[in-house]
Each structure stands twice: as structure tokens, then as C-alpha cells.
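[User] I wish I could look at a protein chain and see how it folds. I have put the entry right below:
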Amino acid sequence: MPSDQSTWLIAVPNDGEAEGLSQELHSKLAYQSKSTGLAQFEIPSFKTGTLDSLIALSEDIPKQDTAFTSTVAKTVDTLRSLLNNDPAKLAQHILIDEKSVDDYLLKGWKWDEGRYNVQKGLREIVDSLAKDLTSIDNAMKAKLNNYNLVKGSLTQMQRKKLGNLSVRSLADLVTKDDFIQDSDYLETLLVAVPRALVKDWNTKYEQLATMVVPRSSKLISSDEDYSLFGVVVFKRTHDDFSQGCRENKFILRDFVYSEAEFAKQREELETADTTEKELWTELLRLSRTNFSESFKILVHLKVVRLFVESVLRYGLPANYLGLVIEPDPRVTKKTFNLLQTHFTYLSPRSNGSTKGKGKGEGEEFIGEYQSLMDQEFFDFVLFEVPWIVY
């Protein structure tokens, strides 16, 4: 039984028995649920080709169907990520030619003859669909990788401004006046002291090395975990002071005051932020466009698949009627049972069973096309368009 989280594409022979089918089904489905969507569409009269070519397509298309669906799903995931998983915003971008997915399928779907000429062979059409989708997928991957690199770099820069005083960047917390400038002998060191050890710092810092300037400790900043102190020492005693800090659980920050370096860092952050916003906009625009194009390609592939399976199921003439059904999840089973009952008249025409064949002929046919004979099928041909956009 098909999923209740998908739209169903159905094909049946378009002959006298199918006349008025859409109106009749609409009445029956509406009786079950007025939320069930139904529309009729035209399945093009493709060139059928040989039986072997149809069999080959029937085996190949499901793999491409899976790959196409995955490409569409990845594009939707990209949009979700860009829009912070906001359903309202997502709905504004999950459009096909500015129409919702439901409207695209249920309100007059037509084969795009301008892009995919039905006079070409089925294999050529399928190859064209695959080529177009591969191009879309490659463009998305390139743009997404570029965006992720810039986003990652920006995140790393921003992360440096986060955290406590023992790890975060100090560039925006200190000023020039906090440091001894241009001295051959003295330097200012920055030390992150756990809040619980501030008293120890005040009593011990002058003894952490032999040449610490007395009363030079200066509180620069504090957070919930640490206090940041500046202290002046002789350069020659730097290593001894560092060792003393480690022994007392004070954290000596590796920091050199440089206005030029700070300006460079600010510029890099601003550039990364601007670039990220620009690439975000480009990726959003491309994802929106590519969703529309890839979804159309997916539906076109499914229509080709409907045609191929219909020829194998019902034979010639290759004249079939297409139906789109969007089931109400609350009554999916009833809807499917209604369809099975309605199309029982197609059972004698189906090639899905080998009953009644001569023993030799039937076994030879099954042996050659076992993979097809193992497929579950109904009296009508049905394939699903999963609701990957929800």
C-alpha cells in the first residue's frame, strides 16, 4: 500500500472505459474526505521502442528516481538550514514557478515539451533529465561548500570572542594604557585568575618571580569564572613568572598588544561577516531556483516511469490517462481500497500475472524478467511523490 505521506501519480488506459473517470472518482473520494485532492493530467504519447528497451528502462529508472528524490530532499534541507527551520519562511521558498507543490501537481500539470521533446526516444529523454539534475546538483554542491567554508571561518572568528577570560580573545577588553610601551626591560603580562583565587593572587603575585614590579597588579576585567589582571615584570624573568603562575593555577595569557594586529583582525571579521551574508543570499536564491527545477525534473521522470510501466502492464496502444491524488492521511487506507475497487475492470488486461500462460512460455518469461515479476503491483500503475517538503 502506498504511503499516506506522499502524492500518488496513477496511470490507466485511456479508452472508452476511462471516460468521465475523473468526475466519478472525485465524487467518491469527496464522500470519504473533502481534503483528498484529485486532478487529471495528460501522459504524453512517447515513442515506445522495443520490449527489451522498456524492460531495461523499467530496471534503471527506479535507481534514478531514488537519486533524483535525494537531490530534491538535500535542496530542501539546505533551505531549512538557511532559514533556521522556520516553517513559514520555508513555505515562501518551496515553490515551483511561484506555485506551491500542491498547486503545481493538482492544477494543470503539463509535460515540458520545450525542454524534453516527446519525439525523442525514452532513453534519450531520461538521459536528458539525469544530465539536467546532475548539473543542478553540482552547482548546489559547489555553492554550498563555498558557503560552509566562509561560515566556518566566521564562526571560528566569532568563537574567539566567546568563552571566559582564560580562553577568549582579549583584544576588545584592553587598551593601550594597560601596557608598558616601548621598554627594553619591562613588559606587561595578562593573567586570568580564578575568582576563588583572587585573594591568593593579590598576596602572591609579587613573589611569583624575582623581578616583578611591586604594586603593579591592575584589574582589567572580570566574568563569572575569572578576573583578568595586568602585571608588570622584567622581560628576563618572563619564564620564571610563567612557571610561578602554573604552580598557583593562575593562567598566563599569551597576548601581545598590537593596534595594527587588532585592526587586521577586525577587518578580517567584518570581511568574513559581509562575505557570509552575501553567500547566504546567493545560496538561498540558488536553492530556491534549484528546488523548483529539480522538483519538476523529478516529476517528469516519474511520468516517464508511469508510461514505461503502463506499456509493460497494458500493452499497446500506448494511450494512457494520468491522475494525481493527494490522499487525506486520515483515510488513506479507505482511499486506496476505493481505487482498487474502482479499477478492478483492468485486472483482465494486466500483464502482471502469468496465470493462464503455457508452462514453457510462462517460465521462460519469468526467468528473463524475474526482477519485474517480483514487484508488487495493482490493477493500475502507481508511483509516489514523497512529501519531502514538509
About this structure: The chain is about 50% helix and 15% strand.
